[in-house]
Amino acid sequence: MPEKAWFKQVMQDSEDAYLFISKDSMIEDVAGAIQNVLKVPRKELVGAALSDRDILRADFLKSFIAESVKAPCSSDKKNDAYLDRRNQLRWKYYEARDGNVVAKVSRMNTHLEAEEAIVDQLADALPMMITYVDRNWCFLFNNKAYEEFIGLTREELYRKPVSSVMTEESFKKIVPRFERALSGERVNYEDRLTLADGRSLHFNVSYIPYFIGDEVGGFYAVINDVSEYSAMINLLKGIHNAVNRTDIDTQEIISNLLRDALDYLGQDIAIVSQVVGDQYTIMWSESKEAAIEPGTVFSLGDTYCRLTLNHDDVFHTIDAGNDIRFSGHPCYETFGLETYIGAPVRINGIVWGTVNFSSASHRVKPFSDIEVELVRLIVGAVEKVVTQFEYLSQVKKERDEMAALARKDQLTGLPNRAYLNEYVDMLVKSPDVQHAGICLAVIDIDHFKTINDTYGHDIGDQVIIWLSERVTEVLRARAGDFAARVGGEEFVVMINNSSLEVARSVMERVRSKIESTPIPIEEASPLHITISSGVTQWQPTDTYPHVFKRADEALYEAKHGGRNQVCVSQ
Hints:
The chain has 19 helices and 23 strands. By secondary structure, it is α+β, with helices and mostly antiparallel strands. The strands form five sheets. The protein has a six-stranded antiparallel β-sheet, sandwiched between helices. The protein has a five-stranded antiparallel β-sheet with strand order 2-1-5-4-3. Strands 7-6-10-9-8 form a five-stranded antiparallel β-sheet, with helices on both faces. The longest helix is centred in the C-terminal third of the chain and has 38 residues, at about 370-405. InterPro entries: Diguanylate_Cyclase, GAF, GAF-like_dom_sf, GGDEF_dom, Nucleotide_cyclase, PAS, PAS-like_dom_sf, PAS_4. One of its GO terms (molecular function) is diguanylate cyclase activity.
């Protein structure tokens, strides 16, 4: 370095600092206003590696040296500058002999400092989060919105790696985007990321590269938390599905709707309840914690929904423990729910139940007007789904009743021929038939025509009803056995899991019961009747007509053998 006295004097009077830096980024000498500019004693700099000092831009210098090595003889000598706004420094680099570098470091002038202050104030005034990330993926600047969102000051964040504020999985998702930004590309994206504190949020992000000459020194990140907007869109889609979709069932529609609402409202429990009198029944539910089983019943007075129904509109709190309206409420004493919002559900203008969302945690912000209106929209969607659900349930009930009636004898209530045919169709496909465990009996009332002619058809009908009841009483002792009325005074009895001898014994008990029990007749003496029956067993090769024919032949034998008896056909 020059040793002339005049040069030393110039350096002493200079307001700038000068560093003589070797090709391997070692500080060989310093001059000028080192202490004033860099705030570091001369003795700590000389002999140190440039990267040892956090205040210096090693990454920029390395890029400069690399360019010099690639074109050492170029007449267009590299001459570049870098503004370190964080430390209020201006770096100017000059190529020296043998590939070494001289760095001139100046304090920013008043104009630049004022400009920097304006930029910082502007960034702090913006509602979106702004941060500057260097080539090492570390924070160099964060505005006030980012500080408040993360919960750390800019001093605490300075030089911290970005990976420290989010989970490893989320950081892996953004690494390729960092690389694109540091290659000079402007990057825009939306994604859900999970922060180190456990929050999982939806972000809209722009990365804007910051060029130092031809090099990218880092990038600005402009970040918006759009979780609420994203959740609202999902919720509105759920409401649309509830109102319009017909390709998914009621359970799926309600579950999707409740889950989307939980995300948007930031609650833990969602319930659709039905209220009948003082009975509160959970019909559908979603929970981020322990599952709440549909069908669970509470006393209405033990739920916050009693207050909702009294209010007759959307009713809510974010601090039930200190809310006089909830003071001493059984629900608070039992479950400790601090946050609640609910509204009545009406079907055809009549209160049917409630929709409600709750959490044991305090909510940071009160429910907004938009959130209250969205709860009303959710209720409207639930009302439509419930109306459709109840309509379909009623249609199914009526259809089932009609189907049951179509298979039931209108006089006796016993299964009819249609039911018997369905049963037999199912039976022939069953392996039970192959095990010869099915028997069939035919019953006929002896001298029934005489009864009708003597007492009239009304009494005849009473006799048929009475007979069906007595047969059912006997068969009740054997699970699976049943009788069907197939026409007039004729009945078929199906006897399952039995041998032919057991079936004959069962029919003997039926015959004996009928013979020994008088039929009470209003304003007349009791009537006594008898029956005849034929029994057979189902064989592996049999069809129903074959089996019925054999039983009918046995019945014919009983009739012509003196009646009031049971005959068997092999």
